[in-house]
Amino acid sequence: MAPIRWLRRRLVVIAGLLTLGYLLLPNIVVTVFSFNNPKGRFNYEWQRFSTDAWTDPCGVADLCGSLSLSLQIAAWATLGATVLGTMIAFALVRYRFRARGAVNSLIFLPMAMPEVVMAASLLTLFLNLGAQLGFWTILIAHIMFCLSFVVTAVKARVMSMDPRLEQAAQDLYAGPAQTFLRVTLPIAAPGIAAGALLAFALSFDDFIITNFNAGSTVTFPMFVWGSAQRGTPVQINVIGTAMFLVAVLFVLAGMVISNRRNRQKAS
Amino acid sequence: MITVTTKDSSKNSTTKNGTDTGGGDVRLSGISKTYGSFTAVQPLDLTVPQGSFFALLGASGCGKTTTLRMIAGLEEPSSGTVSLGEQDVTNLPPYRRPVNTVFQSYALFPHLDIFENVAFGLRRRGIKSVKKQVGDMLDLVQLGEQARKKPHQLSGGQQQRVAVARALINSPKVLLLDEPLGALDLKLRRQMQLELKRIQTEVGITFVHVTHDQEEAMTMADTVAVMNAGRVEQLGSPADLYENPRSTFVANFLGTSNLIEAEVDTRNGDEIVLRAGGGKLVLPVARCSAPTTTGGKVLVGVRPEKISLTHADEAGEIPAGRNRITGTIADSSFIGVSTQYVIDSPVCPEFEVYAQNIDRDARLVPGAEVVLHWNPAHTFGLDAAQSLLAGTVDSAGVETVGPDEGAAA
Fold first, then answer.
1. Cβ contacts (< 8 Å) between B113 and chain A: which residues?
2. Spatial contact of B370 and B312, defined as CB atoms under 8 Å apart
3. Best A157, A165, A172 residue to mutate vs chain B (most B CBs within 10 Å)
4. How many domains does chain A have?
């Protein structure tokens, strides 16, 4: 009976750990294999420990170029989608206009549409317009599919905002610009930040839409895909691990800051 | 306890003793507000004298909050003008009006701490050194210790005080209060009523207070405007409104009234004699707001606490010259300071009488035959062409609206 009771008490913890393991195992594999020194061109079998790839992350031709391109596109796409999406979200929540209901549902179409279909259609559109495929077509496509996510995130926040807060600001001598900067924006900020993070992540690792509309331009996900045909350099794992660590650092920093804030409030 | 002294801020002149240029009266002339086909506020003329504590009282949807918001500039009037002193502010946006508001749900900025909430108005007007003023103001509302807390960490009563401090620190010409005590529990509400009243007396700023609570309005305000369906039904001091209601709405909304339909019999000098249910009642002419033609109908009103109750066996001892009605006690409830009786009488099946518990007559129990009598000077007369039930509040505290008002609202 004792082992059963022991199990029953810890069932939630065990289930939690197993789920966490399931989530993190792929990341661990990526990290471990970034220290591999493979024999052939493929980094699929563990040979021996080495830090070669870490000391020379750009040692593979075109890798760092594609990474930098992906980061640039992600940054611009995030900026564009966040600005446009925030404005759309405010318009949808604050104003009553004709076709508001239609816009409200149409904005979700890019989320519902199979990515590969959209990618193909976009390519058709660009070709018909005679646009040259490359950085700009990728950027336009990325802003387009990130928009829905930003709108969703910001809208939720704006909807829960009390319109009297802005009236109070106006009542306290803040003009329209001041009201927006001092009250509206700071209160909507968590929603906007969530939308921006989502947009960055989506843009950075998008492969399907990018692949269709990139022309001869190569982004990081396309580089990984391409090299996987011919052999996978360890540097890919290095970049992946580094990205993972940066994300973890962000999360940790956020937790530390909010903890400190809470402690200040308590005192 | 809160004590507030008036402080000079660089841009707004203070209004301590009404020595401000041009006075600080709030004048609304012909102001109205319509939303499509719905009229929230009928064309309205209202003057709030500088330094007074003015209450707009009415049930929800009567237009009182809309009126307040038009003074604040948060609502644009459909017609008419708003003036503060000599200045016409009708076309000024809220941030250019020397007026501050305490909002119903306080509307404290959740992302700013208490200090920054209170400092907000000063900073927007470009005042750099706010520390001392804000500190003083927070001390005055006893929140000095909480300056670095966020609004959600404070109790309802504390948030309420922050909202008052945030508005008052700007030394506005007029402070607008939109049901500021609605979210507080009864005890705290009573306490804040007295505190707000004292703050107002001390700073001498004009307060315009919107409320649906008649007790709150009467406790705090010098002048009360009773609003109904977008109109001011009656305006006056609390005592005047209570003693001399001019419509059934006011008679029922402020306290309780017994209203009887009666017919004008004769008119002797400054008294009108009326017939009701076979008996005669006397009504002073001065207290009748209705036209009185012989044979015409009027509503006779009397407050429950003005009436004395005598057992039918001792009816002979009632002094002459008092209005009398006979009836049977239908119900009595003892509530400590008084006993409330419901009397079934030929003129009104539910005549209410509140008797002080001084000498309780043991025979006054349900079923007993009684005579109700009161001094004719306490009688008031109203136009019979109105709903008897306008402005009544049932025992659960839910406002019921008479048929006329229901159609208008």
1. none
2. yes
3. A172
4. 1
Contact between residue B301 and residue B394 where contact means Cβ atoms under 8 Å apart: no
C-alpha span between B75 and B62 (Å, rounded): 16
Q: Which residues pair with B43 in a beta bridge?
A: none
A9, amino acid identity: R
Q: Residue A134, by phi and psi: left (phi above 0), alpha (psi -120 to 50) or beta?
A: left
Q: What domain range is A181 assigned to? A: 67-220
Class of domain B248-408: mainly beta
Altogether, the residues listed in chain B come to a count of: 409
ipTM: 0.75
CATH hierarchy code of domain B26-243: 3.40.50.300
Kindly state whether B151 is in contact with chain A, defined as any CB-CB distance less than 8 angstroms: no
Find chain B residues with C-beta within 8 A of A183's C-beta: 109, 111
How many CB atoms are located within 10 Å of the residue A133 CB? 16
Give every strand in the sheet of B79-84, ordered side by side: B38-48, B26-35, B79-84, B87-88
| Tens-digit pLDDT profile for residues B350-385 | 899 999 888 778 888 899 999 999 999 999 999 888
pLDDT, tens digit (0-9, with 9 covering 90-100), for A110-154: 888 899 999 999 999 999 999 899 999 999 999 999 999 999 999
* Beta-carbon separation of A169 and B99 below 8 A: no
Alpha-carbon gap, residue A31 to A49, rounded angstroms: 12
Structure tokens, B149: 């807390």
* B359 close to B380: Cβ distance less than 8 angstroms: no
What the block records as the tokens of A12 is 């939630």
Report yes or no on A167 lying in a domain: yes
Question: Domains of chain B: which residue ranges?
Answer: 26-243, 248-408
Chain B stretch 45-104, residues whose beta carbon is closer than 8 A to a beta carbon of chain A? 72-74, 93-96, 99-101, 103-104
Selecting from A172, A264, A265 the residue whose C-beta is nearest the C-beta of B124 gives A172
Global pTM reads 0.77
Q: Does B11 touch chain A (CB under 8 A)?
A: no
Report the distance separating Cα B340 and Cα B95, nearest Å: 51
CB contact under 8 A, B124 and A173: yes
The beta-carbon neighbor of B94 closest among A162, A170, A187 is A170
Residue B360 touches partner A, C-beta closer than 8 Å: no
* CATH code for position A190: 1.10.3720.10
- b/e per residue B251-288 (b: at least 16 CB within 10 A): bbbbbebbbbebebeeeeeeebebebeeeebbbeeebb
